[in-house]
Amino acid sequence: MIRAAIWDVDGTLVDTAEIHFAAWQAFAAAHGFAFTRADFAATFGKRNPEIVRQLFDHDADDARCAEWGEEKERLYRDATDRAGVTLLPGVGALVEGLAAAGWLQGLGSSAPRANLDLILRHTGTAGRFTAVVSGDDVTRGKPDPEVFLKAAALLGVEPARCVVFEDAPSGVAAAKAAGMACVGVTFVGHHPPERLRDAGAELVVPSLDAVTLEVVEGLLR
């Protein structure tokens, strides 16, 4: 039976959190706002329209959200292109192991598609992900399950045959709401392991170095 792995990106596949933070700070300063570490922690993983309305303009219309979101993302992409990005420990081996075992794989992220394309290009992994669902493709961000359900549909795999890899409680909650198993990863340290467990992750690990193909397959038995 076909199985699928659906990957969150930032904090799970790669770590560009500091580049995101610097981009939001630069955007905020240019518009006369403050942007703190607490603001970043409270909004990380959300879609840009949600962040703009939560922190900068509660009444922003869709056009303003799109304009400001794209301004920030240009800052992020320019900085990421300069700095480069690599896969987090254990990711490459697990992606290759899943592919060799016949698993389909996709991405389910709140980030804009242009950001995901940039990361796939830098990491050389585009050929491993049959489905890519970005924040541009959904109307509701995590913890709503829309992003993961769309990825599963594109892959042609039932949600119950999918395993999600996530680093955030909202992402874990989205996976569970979609009816999928979930591995929580704490490597980047954004959230303590107990928060991922409380959100419903069947397995929480400090790094994907600790996760074998057999462990992932066991989550679907």
Automatic annotation (TrEMBL):
It comes from the Bacteria. The keyword Isomerase applies. Its EC number is 5.4.2.6. InterPro entries: B-phosphoglucomutase_hydrolase, HAD-like_sf, HAD-like_SPP, HAD-SF_hydro_IA, HAD_sf, PGP-like_dom2. Gene3D superfamilies: HAD superfamily/HAD-like, Putative phosphatase, domain 2. Keywords: Isomerase. CDD domains: HAD_BPGM-like. One of its GO terms (molecular function) is beta-phosphoglucomutase activity. Belongs to the HAD-like hydrolase superfamily. CbbY/CbbZ/Gph/YieH family. NCBIfam families: HAD-SF-IA-v3, PGMB-YQAB-SF. This is Beta-phosphoglucomutase. It comes from Urbifossiella limnaea. The lineage of its organism: Bacteria, Pseudomonadati, Planctomycetota, Planctomycetia, Gemmatales.
